[in-house]
Amino acid sequence: MQLPIKRTIERIPGGMMVVPLLLGALVATFIPDAPKFFGSFTNALFTGSLAILAVFYVCMGASIDFRATPYIVKKGGTLLIVKIGAAMICGVIAGHFLGEAPVSGGIFAGISTLAIVAAMNDTNGGLYMALMGQYGRPRDVGAYTIMTLESGPFLTMVTLGVAGLAAFPWQSLVGAILPLVFGMIIGNFDREMRAFLGRAIPVMIPFFALALGATLDLSKVWQAGLLGVGMGVAVVVLTGIPLFFADRLTGGTGVAGVSAASAAGNAAAVPAIVAAANPAYADAAAPATILVAACVVVTSILVPIATAWTYRVFGQGEDLAGEQEADADVLAESYQGASRAAR
């Protein structure tokens, strides 16, 4: 007897991240002592999120190809800079009013600068490439190989520092990016290692999601649902508008820009890593994880709708026949690397 477990989970936006996260949170809420009671590997499975994430970022880095056509570098680099720039601006504004601590009461309880920056800093690669495959240019899919540099806590730490909040020691900043860089070096020196490590990326997502969920008590974050919806809408609007114009300025129709206005599933892991590097963010980490996870779901629903509308209004008249001028081998390899990095 076969049950369609994987297919069912994948029908949920960001399901491979959201469903295990919720399962871990249910354990933490109703049977919080169960992992310690069983101990050994069971306890490690529920408490080893940082170790799992370290390996995840090595594999993610291995999927990033140093080689890319000029168009891919220009497009992907522009979208990367604009997305991070929008997150920095919002982080500076939020940091001025909120500081490091989360809001403690009212309808905005749980929101923090950490949650805002983490939600805005990273793009859902699988969603972006799926939308580009339907509405965009072939070369725009390969642009995601550059955008994968958003992955991990490094840029979130930098953004929080730019916002004038609690700084991170240089060792923490370097340590946050070293696994990704190490993976990039391995993957670019050996294509077989790239293929080998790249296959592990989607497999590891539900495991670190489960461990992250095990740190969340749902009874303390019940308000995050409605607030998460609002944050998800804000992510699409505040990043989608500048990304649309940036895409237009680089010769696109705006479709690729809007397709990148989402929150990545693995962004929900960033608050815990940031808090581990700087205890000043410890109180904000748990509610931020829930809020970012909510943003993943909301943006996964809204971005396809916004992309389809953008395509109907701005993109249908474009002639795609000449888009094969990019180097075919480089594009194919970039696409494969980006597909393995999708989250």
From TrEMBL:
Entry's Gene Ontology molecular function annotations: 2-keto-3-deoxygluconate:proton symporter activity
Keywords, in A-Z order: Cell membrane, Membrane, Sugar transport, Symport, Transmembrane, Transmembrane helix, Transport
UniProt entry tagged with the keyword Nuclease: no
Pfam families for the chain: KdgT (PF03812)
Catalytic activity: 2-dehydro-3-deoxy-D-gluconate(in) + H(+)(in) = 2-dehydro-3-deoxy-D-gluconate(out) + H(+)(out)
Its membrane topology: Multi-pass membrane protein
Primary residence: membrane
InterPro entries with a match to the protein in the record: 2keto-3dGluconate_permease (IPR004684)
Compartments where found: Cell membrane
Recorded superkingdom: Bacteria
Transmembrane segments: 12-31, 37-59, 80-97, 103-120, 141-162, 168-189, 196-216, 222-246, 258-278, 284-306
Entry keyword annotation includes Transmembrane: yes
Record-level GO cellular component terms: plasma membrane
Family: Belongs to the KdgT transporter family.
Function in brief: Catalyzes the proton-dependent uptake of 2-keto-3-deoxygluconate (KDG) into the cell.
Name of protein: 2-keto-3-deoxygluconate permease
Organism: Arboricoccus pini
Gene that encodes it: kdgT
